[in-house]
Every structure is written in C-alpha cells, then in structure tokens.
Design a protein that fits this description.
By secondary structure, this protein is of the alpha+beta class. Helices cover about 25% and strands about 45% of the residues. The strands form four sheets. It has a ten-stranded antiparallel beta barrel with strand order 11-12-13-14-15-16-17-18-19-20. Strand 11 and strand 12 form a beta hairpin. The radius of gyration is 39 Å and the shape is rod-shaped.
C-alpha cells in the first residue's frame, strides 16, 4: 500500500478538510504496482480529490459519502488506462484518506527484454559505454513488470523521465531514445538507441618520442596506436576526459603487451589532451638499453662528408652508461669504432669518455640539452689538443640540423634520425 499526503489551507480547521491522503491498493498481490506508477495514480486521484473535497465541510462530505466515492471512482476510471478502479473508500475528517483499490485489465507483462544500440562510436569503445550504463534495464523492469499490457503507452512519460535521470547520473555525454513493442505473449521488447551529444572529437594527432629507441622501430607501432586513436573520433570530448585513464592504459598496453619490448625493458608514457582535435604524446624508452641510428650529410666539409652513426648503450645504473659507437663512411667503405662511458650529471647534462680504436687515442665528451629544440656537444682530444663543437637544432622527429666547428673547419650537418 502506497500513500501521498498534501496540505490544503482552510478558514476553519475544526470543520473543514485540511489534508488529503491518497492510498493506492492493488487487489491482486501477485501483480504489485511499481512506486512510479503508484505515484502517478496518487497524483491523479489527489487532483480529483482536491477539486471535489478541498474547502468543503467535513459534515457535508460525510453526509454524502457514497456519492463522493462513486464520483471519484467514475472520474478516475475515465483517465486510468490498463487498470480498473474496483472501489473507492473515503475516511473523512480534517485529515481525509482516499483509498483506491485497483486491478489490472486482462494480461499483464511478465517478460521485459531491453536491447541497447550504441550509435556513432567504434565497436572497441562499446564495452566501456555498456559498463557505464550497467543496470539500465532496471529502469524499464521496475515500471513494466506486472503492468497491464494495455497501459504500456500510458507509462511512456514515466520511462522517458527515468531514462533521462539515469543518463544524467551515469553517462551525461550521451542522449537516448527508446521504442517498445508489446506482444500477445505478455512480453515487451524495448530498443534503446544511445547516441553522443556535445562537442565531439573530430581528429587525433599522435607524436611518438624516444631517446633510446630508433625511429624505425617506433614506426612499427604507429599503425596499432593510430588504430586505437581512431576509436576516439566521434566520441564526446567530456566522455574521453572522464575516462582518460582508461584510454591511456589501452595505449600503454601496446608497449606492455609486446614481449620483445619487455625483454629490453621498454616502458611507455602517454600524455593526452582531449579536445575536438585530440593531441597524444607517446614516449617509449628503455630503462637499460639505448640504441640510436643517424645518417649524416655534411655540407661544406671536404672529406668523409657522408656517414651513418650507430650508438648502442647499456645502462650500468641510472647515471652511468657503457656504450659502443660506430661510424660508417659508405663512399670510402671505412668503419670507426668508439667504446666509451657516459655519466649523467643532471637530466640535461652528460659528460664522458670514448676511445678511438683506429687512432688509439681518448676523447673527452660533454653533451648539454639547452631547450626542447636546441642541444650542444663538445668533443676534445687531449693528445693532439683538438676540439670540436656542435650546436644542434631539432626540426622534426626524423630530421635535425647541426652547425659544427672544429680547429680546422666548419660545416652544416644535415641529420636524418633513423
């Protein structure tokens, strides 16, 4: 049994009805009435009772009790769909109770099937959305279960309000509409169409960075990363912002799930700025190994002006790297090898030593990162008092330029970062 109470004002509280309470009582216990349906019935009956009883003297209503009960029953029966009013009973006083006993017409709903269709998003994202809307079927079950089939259309407004409230609290970046079809087998099939709203992601821009892995290896992972980012297109910006950690974890899994990368202790980090044009910076680095390959074209240098430099290093600890450098000069078919060690004074400053195996002499090193674009290096050979200085500018992930000066000449070096 459910009830609703409302207060009315009266000039004479001793003899005038002051409050009206409505109780909706289902006659068949096996077909209970949901709270939302009952509240709608109570509101309708209260409106009738308010118009008929409000402001009337208690004695007046009591003297014609049966007539008022029949009147309320008749009016409510005319607007009630799916149910019939078996009886109305008035308990008259300053606080008047209207008891309404109802029973359903014909067949009632026993089975409710809810099917959700998510529009405008990729298949990979749908499980995440379904997780957000878990329990959406209860909105319909709580209202429709044991409801007379004839009353299905009558409760559309209740269902629409309940669905909007659910979405606002669980997934506010999406709207929904629904259709329902009742059949003769006491079953209702409901199709919910979910679609994004608000500002949507239209484009994604991926940048992959690394100081320890060659570009050629990083390029192998770009298609898989781009495929994941394509799934963001068409999603609401706020939805991606709310689930940003989920999308970052999925991008990181490209690195974490690769056995070869894990063998070389490669880890990734993702920075994402979700907007209509979403920016993603994907950093891949090994904590133990360093491998870089670069191609040099020296403009203004007379000899050995085309070369390939490979650097392979192993971190002894966080500050010290043992390495081997190799310079290959394809025109002369010559090779130079330099084993050495580097020590990190800070995250931007390194000093070290390498040994020229062919010339049998040591070389002192210093590397300094000046900004996001600029870096500088110095190499000094104490045995012959020879010094070389280079100022490098980062143009692109695959292309740098360096201005080189030594004791004998100066030139512009074009660097392809392989």
């Amino acid at each position: 049994m459910l009830s609703a109470v409302a207060v009315v004002s009266a000039a004479d509280s001793a003899s005038v009805i002051e409050t009206i309470e409505v109780q909706v009582i289902p006659l068949q216990e096996e077909h209970p009435i949901s709270d939302k349906i009952a509240r709608r019935m109570q509101a309708s009956v209260y409106t009738i009772g308010d118009n008929v009883l409000n402001g009337h003297r208690v004695e007046e209503i009591a003297n014609n009790k049966l007539g008022y009960e029949v009147l309320i029953q008749d009016v409510f029966n005319r607007i009630l769909i799916g149910y019939s009013v078996q009886k109305v009973n008035l308990e008259i006083g300053n606080h008047t109770v209207i008891k309404v006993m109802v029973f359903p017409w014909h067949n009632v709903i026993h089975n409710v099937n809810v099917d959700v269709e998510i529009n405008g998003v990729s298949e990979d994202i749908k499980p995440l959305i379904m997780q957000d809307i878990q329990g959406i079927e209860k909105i319909f079950l709580n209202v429709l279960q044991e409801l007379p089939i004839d009353a299905v259309e009558w409760v559309n407004g209740i269902l629409r309000t309940g669905l909007n409230e659910f979405l606002s609290s669980r997934i506010p970046e999406f709207n929904a509409s629904f259709t329902l079809v009742a059949d003769e087998n006491n079953r209702v099939d409901i199709k919910v169409d979910l679609y994004p709203k608000g500002q949507l992601i239209r484009e994604t821009n991926l940048q992959i960075k690394s100081g320890t892995i060659p570009n050629t290896i990083r390029l192998m992972f770009r298609p898989e990363l781009n495929k994941q980012l394509e799934g963001l297109v068409g999603l609401p910006v706020r939805f991606v912002q709310r689930h940003q950690s989920y999308f970052i974890d999925k991008l990181n899994s490209v690195t974490f799930d690769n056995k070869n990368l894990q063998k070389y202790k490669v880890k990734s980090a993702v920075e994402m700025v979700a907007d209509h044009q979403t920016q993603v910076l994907y950093t891949m680095d090994s904590s133990e190994y360093i491998l870089t390959v670069e191609g040099y074209l020296d403009v203004g240098k007379e000899e050995r002006n085309t070369s390939i430099k490979a650097h392979a290093g192993r971190m002894l600890d966080k500050e010290n790297e043992l390495f081997l450098e190799m310079d290959f000069f394809p025109h002369q078919m010559e090779w130079d090898f330099y084993p050495g060690i580097l020590h990190s004074l800070t995250s931007k400053t390194k000093i070290g030593f390498k040994y020229d195996i062919d010339e049998r002499r040591g070389i002192l090193l210093a590397n300094q990162i000046l900004s996001d674009r600029f870096s500088a290096r110095v190499e000094h050979v104490p045995s012959i008092q020879f010094t070389e200085f280079g100022l490098r500018y980062h143009l692109h992930d695959f292309f740098d330029v360096e201005y080189v000066i030594n004791d004998d000449e100066k030139w512009l070096r074009l660097i392809g970062v392989l």
